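We now fix the convention by which a protein and its fold are recorded. These numbers are not coordinates but entries in a learned vocabulary of local backbone shapes. A record is reproduced here so that you can trace the correspondence yourselves:
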Amino acid sequence: MDESSGSSEVRLMLLSARSVLSDRAAIEIGKLIECGIDWTVFTELLEVHRVLPLVYTTLKGGEFAVPEAAEQQMRRRYLLNVQSSFALTRSLAAIVERFALAGVATLPFKGPVLAQTIYSNVALRQAGDLDILVKTKDIDRASDLLVEMGYSMPLKLNGESHERLHVGHLVESARTQHYEFFNASGIVVELHKGIGLSYLRFGLNNEDIWSLAVPLEMFGQKIYSLPPTYTLLSLIHHGSKHGWYCLSWVCDIAEFLRHTSDFDWAELIRISTKFRMSTMTKVALLLAASSLDSNIPGEILDEISKDRNAMRLTRKVQHMHSVILAEHSYERYEFAFNCVALDRLSDRVRYMFLRATTPSFKEWDMVPLPLALSGLYHVVRPLRIAGEVFGIAVEKLRYRLRH
């Protein structure tokens, strides 16, 4: 069931979720707080949308009249995120250094690198995991290096092979294009061979990414990164993959645009069209401009505002930012969003088919199969989805009959 979050709380979140606050936004924030905010709902919204560090810093820096209890609660969570962010940064530096000694080039994306690059402070972005892309030929070597550093993966827990975990990990990694590792401190590393999902791929494959990658130094280590336009498109692809239901992904777009001077808008339009990401890009820019006041050239905004599909999707996302859903509802929302957000009908049909037949951890968890029969998960998934849809339909029918 949807839980309304209240327009004042949503508006306060949108005005505060930015690293640079305008005078107009500061005045409106003051008025909203003066009129009254449900701080319990507000804090829950910040957690759901993963923007608490950014919002807390804004409200603290502006010396707004936040009630002491609410301020202390946000401060505790902010400090926990600071600890997690620094732990991730230290772990990333150690991994990059170890990989470099072994001759393995790394392209970290999102996480601490994105936070430091566009927020200028790793603690302003909600800490999560480490995403590291390596060359296809280095995947096995990089996996072994992580295990040597004390990280575990389901394939080699405690140095032993567990077939059931082995099957589940293979199923999930085929879908996500990455392998997941974790250590005793709770640091999670996703070792990528591509960007995107098997059924919603980014416009560059592994070889393309490395042909464009440029070196830079960060955290005292040499890493690689994509040029600005491609970095922005990778952020847009990630947010679109999830239907932008989390405001932090829109913040990444807004902060990237604020931080990047002399951005080549013509190149963005050209490459997004080439990658068949035109609608995704329009929605991202519309969200950044309308929700977070990003400074996008007027002629660009005027042109993309003519796209009715992009405008409709933007309004749908903005509604999502004002509600808190049960976890299982997000998967259906993502599916519905991308069935419309993809540029071509052929892409939409392909996405629907592959999304319906590409297995995930859910199928593995529901029906444990041996490795030799793991191909049957492609049949199990549509059966599971059909069962869920049938169950939802039955619940709706029962509700109507009762009322």
